Amino acid sequence: MITAAAMLLPATIQAEVKIEPAGMKIVWKSLKDDFDGFQTYNSSKGTYVSLALRAGEKGIIAFDKDKSKINISDGTSDLGGKFGMWNKISKSGKVMRVEVTTEKLPAAGTQSLELTGSINATVASNTDTKASEAREFKKGDKVELTDDFKFEISKIEKPKWGDDPLSVTLKWSRKIPELAAVRFYDAEGKEIESKSGGSSWGGFLGKYSVTKSYRLKRKSKVLKIEMDLWTDAETINVPIKLKMGLHGGQ
Fold first, then answer.
1. Is the full-model pTM beyond 0.90?
2. 1 within some domain
3. Number of folded domains in the chain?
4. Which of 8, 36, 107, 115 has the most CB atoms around it within 10 Å of its CB?
5. In this predicted model, what pLDDT tens digit does every residue of 207-234 receive, in sequence order?
6. What sign does the dihedral 90-94-97-100 (CA atoms) show?
7. Domain assignment of residue 191, given as a range
8. Could you tell me if residue 7 is inside a domain?
């Protein structure tokens, strides 16, 4: 019998960060073919576990699942495991929810699941504000905010969808998450309301390319781009050693 709640074994705390179980789901049969493609719990057959990573003094700003490791065991055999797509950091940065999945099912009679591995995360707490000069930007322009942080105007145009009059896409060449916040100002120094329009990144042979787009509520020929950059970011590797069973985690 597989139980549905969780019991927490003592977890290693590194840099005041701890990991605790948040939930567990077992899908024995997806029933996809029986219900016109609609699956049980909207999930394929397999085992699903949600973990909560709680930060200490520094907030969580990034999670690198490629450098993280996870394995699920039912006590008699390893079920493997991988990190899912629905990983999210809270607005406060104090909690990150991580999804772990495997296509394998626990053996009959299993009473608990054991998770081992590690989570690679970046934490930070302090920022420094830097700004470009107020100027007219065009595609391909490069901006140097510090000796160590430069970005390029990848696109500056009216969005292809929606009512916003202007979209600005920024691009830089590494995966390190220096950027905490971005603001845009017009020629008179008045802030232009903006929101995130999406982001993407890719890497090959150790070289990364990151893009972030922003949708502006007002169009301005002249812009000043202001950024809050993390100054104390550090990458940590937090070990995972959890047991999930009948009783809720503490």
1. no
2. no
3. 2
4. 115
5. 778 899 999 999 999 999 999 999 999 9
6. positive
7. 127-230
8. no
